[in-house]
């Protein structure tokens, strides 16, 4: 087994990239580029597990690509492409569908959340989504997967699938067991309307999230309207843990200022939320608006974005085919 470190991660082109995607994933994708080979994928096959309007999907693929670059990913250094353009993802997913167990998939909480109350009506794709995610990672023998905390269970499943494949086919250490890289400080950004729900692209209310493309006045308005409680900011972290909306805003502030929550509480304790909100809005405008501006500029040049995806696909495909040849042989396919 080669001990070369490779990171793989994906983002679904399902709508506007938001602050949760940025702080939970993209920001870390960028810093990992200095440490190892990185493969970043716009996971369009995952996106279609729930219905996407075809024209919207096409433009979201390009917009997510622009979001990657505007956030600081280097397309010369890292491999950036869209999943459906490398057919090995679908092929390996089928092989892994035959390795993974129904009982394992039945435990996946994201399926339960996304399928809602009527599971019979959810697509089969949504149910087996974690097997495709395992294929994405294992196709490149990735050793590290930078993700938000919501994806931890899926990475654990990828490890189980890798281990079972290696055992079933007597292919010791063929697939490395991928490690999740979950940001310690800010693993999950919550909705601005409900501190118990994660910030999400598909949440109906645009006031629940800060989009990377939001203008400064929209950011200020959304933070002003963000739900809080009636008490002043506490001095104690334990007390903060019991107040989800306050915790969310202070966690975002702590990440943007590079200060620990404790230090932020020292500065803010006893003050009311309008003080925090004014400071937070300023930080967000400073951080997010330049990214949004870059995204909008790139969206005017679809040829540039398509060229990035084409180059990425070519590089990814070489890696994928190399591994698939070995996988087919191990499984007994000729
Ligand atoms: N709220 C969040 N906080 C921290 N990290 C987050 N991520 C997503 N939301 C948050 C991380 O971003 C990466 C890409 O996620 P995704 O877009 O592929 O899928 P998702 O997790 O399903 O994101 P959304 O916004 O909730 O999309 P929809 O609404 O389409 O389902 C992942 O690493 C994820 O952890």
Brief synopsis:
By secondary structure, the chain is mainly alpha-helical.
Task: Tell me what you see in this structure.
With 334 residues, the protein is mainly alpha-helical. The protein has 2 domains: 6-187 and 301-331, Rossmann fold, CATH 3.40.50.620; 206-297, Orthogonal Bundle (Tyrosyl-Transfer RNA Synthetase), CATH 1.10.240.10. Helices cover 55% and strands 7% of the residues. The protein has 14 helices and 5 strands. It has helices at residues 19-32, 44-47, 54-71, 88-97, 102-106, 109-115, 124-138, 152-168, 216-225, 237-241, 244-257, 261-268, 273-299, 302-331, and strands at 6-11, 37-42, 79-82, 144-146, 179-181. It has a 3-stranded parallel β-sheet. A two-stranded parallel ribbon has the order 4-5. Helix 1 (19-32) links the parallel strand 1 and strand 2. Helix 3 crosses helix 13. It is globular and about 70 Å long. It starts with 5 loop residues before the first strand and ends with a helix. The model has no long low-confidence stretch (mean pLDDT 95). Residues 11-12, 14, 20-21, 24-25, 147-148, 150-151, 188-189, 198-202 line the site of adenosine-5'-tetraphosphate.
